[in-house]
From TrEMBL:
Belongs to the NAD(P)-dependent epimerase/dehydratase family. SDR39U1 subfamily. It holds the Pfam family Epimerase. Transmembrane segments: none annotated. Residues 185-396 form the NAD-dependent epimerase/dehydratase domain. PANTHER family: EPIMERASE FAMILY PROTEIN SDR39U1 (PTHR11092:SF0), SUGAR NUCLEOTIDE EPIMERASE RELATED (PTHR11092). This is TIGR01777 family oxidoreductase. The lineage of its organism: Bacteria, Bacillati, Actinomycetota, Actinomycetes, Micrococcales. Residues 432-479 form the DUF1731 domain. It comes from the Bacteria. InterPro entries: DUF1731, Epimerase_deHydtase, NAD(P)-bd_dom_sf, SDR39U1, START-like_dom_sf. It comes from Brevibacterium daeguense.
Length: 491
């Protein structure tokens, strides 16, 4: 049996850190994007016998190769501890004991933390893992098992504790911005890549989150609705202080008439239903805020070197029309006295889905390169930052109207390719001609998606003092794909 142990100090009290781990969303927030994807958390969290379903990445695959992994919770050996045991997965066995203790005055040397630690104001987290890759008969191969697993385990737990410290610090900042009150937050689209992170960040911060689901509700934190039939009970909306809408079918498809209708109706009809439910309520029962997704496609598909703030004029094209109608429906909430925000999201860089998920295998194979001429602007945002932005907008009463959710450093396609190639230690010179995306997506979708040229600035977020966790492209790519940035210097 191989053994791995990792310790770290987080500059927050034991009670706060342990309570954070007991809330829904903790596993989702703790999981590095490149290391594992949470399919379903255990419910209730940490309950003995409850199971979590994940897709864990094979070592060295940077999240490209993932396999199912199911773990079961058990009580730990002490008051502030718990155990996870693998019941199905790629290993012979896996038992992970999480232990939490108040950090003493000398505990800072045990691991990484988010600042100076004083006794009683910091928490020592110890992770002990006993595992086997190979059958017990192959006991002489423990050294090989450790050589295969320990670099990945070390990187995983460094990333986990870095995320934990950053989340605890950021959630304290949110309380400073919005006050200490715990909010009731209703989320549509909580099963998507962004929605899972938004829900997890808010629930681990102590807010009560319910999810709108298009089926019969099975749990107390679920609410049934059916936008296609116009079904949503207004009293379910009355429960919420904040409603967040992240719904809509994927746009990465050929823009056939039927696809266009689905893309538009899935956004406009569902948004209209939420606002109509608010309108049926007495003013005093309406939510305080309605936060609705949108996209930087609102500015069109090709604006060249023009810097696009929220004050820029709308653009042309199908997706610009979708965003305009989507935001128009969402803005009707403001007529009801409900604070309205439309979050115009850029290209979300995550190894879990979307643009980077498709590109990463090519780069790892040495077949990556810029799209088209490489001169097009790419306005990007990390998955961690888009979740933080939604959380900030949910609690900050000063933010209203359209808000650009992009990192402050847009790059051209050729720069993106060069950075990702250097991180992957692969060449990145094979440019993809325009005909490639056109064959896959059709001419219009290729022009508005793969060949988009938008230089967008997060003016309102910066004016509000929002601090990006990943404002630097190499750091953002490294965090989501598990690359090392040692020796990487942007061109």
């Amino acid at each position: 049996m191989a053994h791995f142990s990792h310790s770290a100090v987080v500059a927050h009290p034991l009670a706060e850190v342990f309570s954070w781990h007991q809330r829904p969303g903790a596993l989702t927030r703790l999981s590095p994007e490149w290391a594992q994807e949470v399919v379903a958390e255990a419910h209730p969290p940490l309950a003995p016998g409850a199971r979590a379903h994940l897709r864990t990445s094979l070592p060295g695959s940077h999240g490209v190769l993932r396999v199912p992994f199911v773990s079961e919770h058990a009580a730990g050996p002490s008051e502030h501890s718990f155990v996870d045991r693998m019941v199905r997965g790629p290993l012979r066995s896996w038992e992970h004991t999480h232990t939490f203790a108040a950090a003493g005055p000398d505990a800072g040397a045990a691991g990484q933390g988010s600042g100076e630690s004083d006794s009683g104001n910091a928490c020592l987290i110890t992770d002990d893992i006993d595992y086997r890759l190979l059958p017990a008969a192959a006991s002489g191969l423990l050294g090989i098992e450790r050589a295969l697993m320990e670099p990945t385990l070390q990187a995983t737990f460094l990333a986990r504790n870095d995320r934990l410290a950053a989340d605890l610090d950021y959630q304290q900042h949110l309380r400073e911005v919005g006050g200490p009150e715990s909010l009731s937050i209703l989320i549509a689209g909580a099963s998507g890549t962004i929605g899972r992170q938004v829900a997890a960040l808010l629930s681990t911060a102590g807010h009560e989150v319910r999810r709108l689901v298009r089926r019969r509700a099975r749990r107390t934190d679920e609410v049934s609705w059916d936008p296609g039939r116009g079904y949503l009970r207004p009293d379910e909306v009355a429960w919420a202080d904040v409603v967040i809408h992240l719904g809509g079918v994927p746009i990465a498809t050929r823009f056939t008439p039927a696809a266009k209708d689905r893309i538009l109706s899935s956004r406009v009809d569902s948004t209209r239903l939420l606002v109509l439910a608010m309108a049926e309520l007495p003013p005093q029962d309406r939510p305080r805020a309605f936060i609705c997704a949108s996209g930087i496609n609102a500015y069109g598909s090709s604006r060249g070197d023009e810097t696009l703030t929220e004050q820029a004029e709308s653009g042309d094209g199908f997706l610009a029309e979708v965003c305009a109608r989507w935001e128009s429906e969402a803005s009707r909430a403001a007529d009801l006295g409900v604070r309205w925000v439309s979050v115009r999201t850029g290209v979300v860089l995550t190894s879990l889905s979307g643009f980077l998920r498709l590109q990463l295998p090519l780069y790892l194979a040495g077949l990556g390169g810029p799209l088209g001429s490489g001169r097009q602007w790419l306005s990007w945002i990390s998955l961690d930052d888009i979740a933080r932005i939604y959380a900030r907008v949910a609690v900050d009463a000063e933010l209203t109207g359209p808000v650009n959710a992009v990192a402050p450093g847009p790059v051209r396609q050729r720069e993106f390719a060069a950075v990702l190639g250097r991180l992957a230690h692969r060449p990145a010179a094979l440019s993809v001609p325009d005909i490639g995306p056109a064959v896959l997506l059709g001419k219009q979708a290729a022009e508005e998606l793969a060949q988009a040229d938008l230089r967008v600035a997060p003016a309102r977020l910066q004016a509000a003092g929002y601090r990006f966790r990943y404002a630097d492209l190499p750091q953002a790519l490294a965090a989501t794909a598990g690359f090392s940035t040692t020796g990487i210097v942007p061109e």
